[in-house]
Amino acid sequence: HVLRAGEPPYTVETVDGSTYRAEVITQMNISGEQYDLAMLKFKADTDYMTAKIGSSVKLEVGESVFAAGFPYQESSSPKTSAVLAQSNLFTPRKLSLKSGRIAIILNQALAEGYQIGYTNDVKKGMSGGPLLNSQGEVIGVNGKHAYPLWESPEIYQDGSELCPALQELINRSSLAIPIE
Question: Which residue of 18, 22, 122, 153 sits 20 to 30 Å from the alpha carbon of 161, by its own alpha carbon?
Fold first, then answer.
């Protein structure tokens, strides 16, 4: 959804504040299902550490997880906020790490691949950031924050609907696509 909201050329911002032009390698389409993921590559003069890939297969409800990303931080000045809103620019962003716990693991994926729900306070702008286990391994990709403004019901990839109680739990959870 981040790429759908913008237009090329895309950029990647690294933890040191550097920005690089990025190229879309592929949009994820696995087993005929469209996932809310894309892979980008960029070239830099700096060597950046990469995260270790873990597994989401054995996750359990209640397990500690950490969501990382760069949330948007709008200025508190009304005049500045109006200018930023018009230009779609925000103040410099800092890496944020939000702790929480697994709230739900769905037996089948929702539309766009979401399957892990968690209590972490994910903010707008953290989409595409990693969901990490307690060993610091990437087990998923952040994509949706809790309490969406549009209040639209989720559906499974096969088009079937969720029961109301499950829908409510999902609305109260941030959502990630499992790393697998």
Answer: 122
